[in-house]
Amino acid sequence: MTAKIQLALGIDEEATDVKITRSKDGDTSVAVFIFDSPKCMSGENANNNEILGMYMIDEEGEMVTRNVNAKFINGKSAGIEAIHKIEGERDWERFLRFMNRYAESNGMSLNKA
Question: How far apart are CA 23 and CA 21, in angstroms?
Fold first, then answer.
């Protein structure tokens, strides 16, 4: 199974950008996912898709965040931003495993700031 992200269940999305920050003590981390042209907000079924969160799905299971914000300009979709908070070392390691699988599946690479 490849790693995938869904905003509306059943529609696989590709993140345009992912920004990850981590506190100095490693207790808290935040990942911000940007979707410039999400599939769930385009096409003929765009009005029928219900976005209840961002679902990160891989062979280990599913991680979900409900902190998802759609952006609109002049009434048209201008993208989605999803924020995933990570607490503790165990969740951090799980998130990194997912991101490695997702990056491999979608041709993404890590750029350290």
Answer: 7
